[in-house]
Write a structure and sequence with these properties.
Radius of gyration: 18 Å
Largest sheet: 8 strands, mixed
CATH superfamily: 1, 4-beta cellobiohydrolase
Helix content: 25-40%
CATH class: Alpha Beta
Strand order of the largest sheet: 2-4-5-6-7-8-10-9
CATH architecture: Alpha-Beta Barrel
Distance between the termini: 27 Å
Number of strands: 10
Number of domains: 1
Order of helices and strands: EHHEHEEHEHEHEHEEEH
Number of helices: 8
Length: 310
């Protein structure tokens, strides 16, 4: 089918030393209810519809889950069931940590740490025995220092709890803790925070979520984080990179819907131990950051600019 990516996925669950057990190949799920797909279905006569359908709506990308998702067990369960019916692997983002985005454009999250623990436990239980790629709490570690000392400790404990829930209740989920991007914090700091957040029981870490850093920059940084993990703990982890908007690289330090950005490599899995092991569209291309429209809302003008690199 034109524009629809089928990516073989041969992954494994981590052990303390990074041992792997190959799993059967599958394909990444193309969400028929992505924001781009919904817009396409609602605007059949728009002259941009064919471009947005082929370049965005028919590409594998993540669905984000948060306090807007309703009963989280049902929301996640329905999503992973739909992917499983097609023998495909969905990409999910858990984005509901208390104090989310430090009160900025995507402010919100669960009202308490205990509330979040209940939410993420239900999330993991809903994934259950299904295969799934889970990106855990974008920005939570990068923005750690916006919290008080007690708040930082609570967030780290909560992330460890989240990782443990997936480790126990969703053994076929490939969980990647978000570790910011190549310009956010030194690799040694990222590695230390990942360790404190429970990376030992996760598949790995995610980089460049919703950002624009080049593939080369992200790979160099990911390798440096792994070198720091090896030095600090004696193991490394797999990592994935968000390529949804990095085709032209960044515009300086601008991050909120900057002009001239472009979609990058469509979601793909790299086999044979290559790192990053996945390049994924984690941020949904065409969804605003909060400057061109409300955060998370699909803007067709932004979408076409990203497709064309304008």
């Amino acid at each position: 089918m034109p524009g629809k990516l089928l990516a073989l996925l041969l992954l494994a669950l981590p052990g303390a030393a990074g041992a792997v057990t190959p799993l059967a190949p599958t394909s990444l799920y193309v969400d028929p209810q992505s924001t781009a797909a919904i817009w396409v279905n609602q605007h059949p006569d728009d002259p941009r519809v064919d471009l947005i359908r082929s370049k965005l709506a028919e590409q594998a990308q993540a669905r984000w889950f948060g306090n807007w998702s309703g009963e989280i067990g049902k929301a996640v369960g329905d999503y992973v069931d739909a992917a499983a019916a097609l023998k495909q692997t969905p990409i999910l983002v858990a984005y509901n940590i208390p104090g989310r985005d430090c009160g900025q454009y995507s402010a919100g999250g669960a009202n308490s740490l205990s509330g979040y623990q209940q939410w993420i436990a239900s999330f993991a239980a809903a994934v259950g025995q299904h295969k799934a790629v889970v990106i855990l709490e974008p920005d939570a570690l990068g923005q750690l220092t916006c919290l008080s000392a007690a708040g930082q400790q609570g967030r780290l404990e909560t992330l460890r709890y989240a990782v443990a829930q997936f480790h126990q209740a969703a053994p076929q989920a490939y969980v990647y803790l978000d570790a910011g991007n190549s310009a956010w914090m030194p690799a040694e700091v990222a590695a230390s925070r990942l360790v404190q957040a429970g990376i030992a029981d996760a598949r790995g870490f995610a980089l460049n979520v919703s950002n624009y850093k080049t593939d080369a920059s992200s790979k160099a940084y990911g390798d440096a984080v792994n070198a720091a993990l090896q030095k600090q703990q004696g193991y490394t982890r797999a990592y994935v990179v968000d390529t949804s908007r990095n085709g032209n690289g960044p515009l300086g330090a601008a991050w909120c819907d900057p002009p001239g950005r472009k979609t990058g490599v469509p979601s793909v899995v790299h086999l044979g131990g290559v790192q990053p092991e996945m390049q994924l569209w984690i941020k949904a291309p065409g969804n605003a950051d909060g400057c061109r429209g409300k955060a998370g809302i699909f803007i067709p003008e932004l979408a076409t600019q990203l497709i064309e690199g304008k």
